[in-house]
Amino acid sequence: MAKAPKTAIQPTRSEDYPEWYQQVIRAADLAESSPVRGCMVIKPWGYRLWENMQRALDDMFKATGHQNAYFPLFIPMSFLEKEAEHVEGFAKECAVVTHHRLEPNPDGGLRPAGALEEPLIVRPTSETIIGATYAKWVQSHRDLPILINQWANVVRWEMRTRMFLRTAEFLWQEGHTVHATSEEAIAETQQMINVYADFAQNWMAMPVIIGSKTPAERFPGAVETLSIEAMMQDRKALQAGTSHFLGQNFSKAQEIMFQAENGERQYAWTTSWGVSTRLVGALIMSHSDDDGLVLPPRLAPDQIVILPIYRDDSQRLEVLQHVESIKAELEAMSFLGQPLRIAIDDRDVRGGEKKWHHVKRGVPIRLEVGPKDIEKGSVFVGRRDQPKSFGMSRSEFIATAPALLDEMQKGLFNRALQLRNENTQEITTESDFRDFFAASDEKELHGGFAHCHFADEQSLEPLLKDLKVTIRCVPSEDNDEAGTCFSTGKAAQKRAIFAKAY
Amino acid sequence: MAKAPKTAIQPTRSEDYPEWYQQVIRAADLAESSPVRGCMVIKPWGYRLWENMQRALDDMFKATGHQNAYFPLFIPMSFLEKEAEHVEGFAKECAVVTHHRLEPNPDGGLRPAGALEEPLIVRPTSETIIGATYAKWVQSHRDLPILINQWANVVRWEMRTRMFLRTAEFLWQEGHTVHATSEEAIAETQQMINVYADFAQNWMAMPVIIGSKTPAERFPGAVETLSIEAMMQDRKALQAGTSHFLGQNFSKAQEIMFQAENGERQYAWTTSWGVSTRLVGALIMSHSDDDGLVLPPRLAPDQIVILPIYRDDSQRLEVLQHVESIKAELEAMSFLGQPLRIAIDDRDVRGGEKKWHHVKRGVPIRLEVGPKDIEKGSVFVGRRDQPKSFGMSRSEFIATAPALLDEMQKGLFNRALQLRNENTQEITTESDFRDFFAASDEKELHGGFAHCHFADEQSLEPLLKDLKVTIRCVPSEDNDEAGTCFSTGKAAQKRAIFAKAY
Description:
2 copies of one chain form a homodimer.
Chain A: H1 17-27, E1 31-33, E2 40-42, H2 44-63, E3 67-68, E4 74-76, H3 77-80, H4 84-90, E5 96-104, E6 110-122, H5 127-137, E7 146-155, E8 169-179, H6 182-202, E9 209-212, E10 224-231, E11 237-245, H7 249-254, E12 257-259, E13 265-267, E14 269-276, H8 278-287, E15 304-308, H9 313-331, E16 334-335, E17 338-339, E18 342-344, H10 351-360, E19 365-369, H11 371-376, E20 378-383, E21 389-393, H12 394-422, E22 424-426, H13 430-438, E23 449-454, H14 461-467, E24 470-475, E25 483-484, E26 491-492, E27 494-499
Parallel strand pairs in A: 3-7, 15-18, 15-19, 22-23
Antiparallel strand pairs in A: 1-2, 4-6, 5-6, 7-8, 8-14, 9-10, 9-24, 10-11, 11-14, 12-13, 16-17, 19-20, 20-21, 23-27, 24-27, 25-26
Helix pairs in contact in A: 2-6
């Protein structure tokens, strides 16, 4: 039997997907674990990726009328108690500050001192602390709507963590809005899940399904949670963003009231919505391959890296001048409204190692340029999404670089969409449902999205628990056909997506 | 006696400077106190100002070769203990996380549960946690230098807080670099204090003095601390940024070692440097007046606000179309490389109230445009830095707007420089020194910067404590003249700046 070709990432996706994921992160220098349990260090390449995501999202939030602000890291314990479901959802996994200084321990070292009168919680999410502030800001219908977003770190004391996907501390944005009517708040909830879907599909090249969460999967305290769900390459679902219609639950808990035009005092209607550094994990698992990270050009920190090739110092100067001029010409061009991001890697490292450095980091296009290329007016092009490299005239490459990036961006999206389509099934019987998910094993590719009619989630609980499957969402579109529940046979109005999930 | 003209801010600066400061913040809608002791809420107008500061600084850091990354919020208590001076400096004011969940209290409510094996400190600064990571990254001289910055929140449990100037939680950036030689690390320390001075003077329009801190005022664990010091309008000093040469103190505490070219294992040399939301406080106190906030145009969230004036709906449409076209023409122009930032305020609020809204928020230029102006092709211009408003042709205003903003930017700098010059004195005797600072009262304008030769700081301690004066810095420039200490009469090589300070 022929030996399989060696890949840059060991193990491969098919050999051990979870371990492949960790190795891609390591090989691409995105992040690493830290000395603090469950917290990671986001390294420069990973942080640049996050900055690009932030910039794009921030522009979209501002274009839809939101402003940024900043609220305290700490939440007084009593605030969390005000909304019953909310505290139930977060009390089990929060970091609690109980002291405000350290003092020498008689046995050596230090110990906490200065006990606080009331413990403070490091925010796991900010509905309660922001709501307390909004209660002061909102007096009249003229103060509404309030449309605010916050970029922040939050802490949830997860027992099992995985880089980017589930960490004790993570970076995110949380939008918190207040409205005079239920209709307006629902429209906001819908608008923001659409913004997230737009970002996922057009920036991350990641197809997503918009839908509603079932009651058991809702955000603690929400009336309705909308989410975007994506399929990773191991066929598992990943929830990539959520937008919550909170009804009057939080405004009642926190007395966010306003005087309506008719003079009546009313409770306001609130929403919240967020995405996090989890998106980096989603990006990795959507596109990367057995040679490492693959980045969609719109988000890649460097879109094109130029690798100058020369034998000695006499060639060096000429080649460097030449690649600088290519860089300048490329930087004068734009891709979807942004100037191209070009790097030159002139480190003293051998060619093969240098090439693989950028392959593993997911740079969309590599350009090798040596003295012969200068002579011929050519460049040697490597695409991250295809195994073959090819020569091309310098001027043609420069003229068509944005089109090439666009083709790659769309290609990644289409490849991900095809994977999802191939692994999505309409399922109408419990036995087919069991078969669909049964082949599963933690280290294998398996399952996918099952579209099934269902009547109520409670009766499905034992089956789902047994198969480790969850209801991802009830899709918002193309979901008006009535049917019967695949498991109970009861009449059902809607289909849901069932999948194993991150 | 004539009644003093009414000002938008009560009290005025001369009546009660500290209270005036709070009222400017409130009137400009920059921030407010939160339900969490010592923590503030940064409101949208204040946050936009901070975002503009961040963007400018971030560009400067990247232009000097730094990359951003992100490190954990928490620091294990044992890490803090490793550097003796460092822990001494921060142990008395840090938030300590001791538990990782909440459980129902038998008497009702909740209580902390799940005690951590080792308490975690919410970072007051990140030398120790970042250093522990760098120790893993640095193996060889080829891994150096490491030039990384982090934008983050930090917590220092201050007992007396004041918005922006001293809050329990604040936002900042902290650069942390590692070098192979002492010379390189010293050059980095110097480079970054120069970047801060450049930002303070050219963006904030705030003159600063660069100098070294005396040993007692150094960052805990540093070999040398450089700072920029500015004079506020009440003549007090404000430390606006610091850059620390840490020598090998932290690399020894944390085993940051590398193999040099000669094969020897050596301790690395590190630096750290930071500025924070304190800069917003400095900006407020540098330029604002008794009518509220005054913003330097380069950092103003809106540089020009257009106030459309009309009597009824028939006029409304014409005026709005007209001001939209003015806005579009202005936005096509640039000021110091950035497109102009223009807002239209079409809220249904009476003219006087609307004008004062923007005066108090510090918008550099107000433009009133009504039907008569459209007819005449004119605009009515209000400058925030001058009391008088004036008419001007529309086309001339548009053509000269960047020049006008530039004039205002320079004007603010010059006004602040003049204030500093008028309140700076060379002082050579203790009696003059006492007189200079004696008139002081918390609510009055007083004192200033005293330039004095001094021999050693310890012998001055009782005098300085008595007068509530501190040594701000030993200026780096024009400080080579020998003399005698103003207090002890001992021979002295350098002058220092003495002042009351924030």
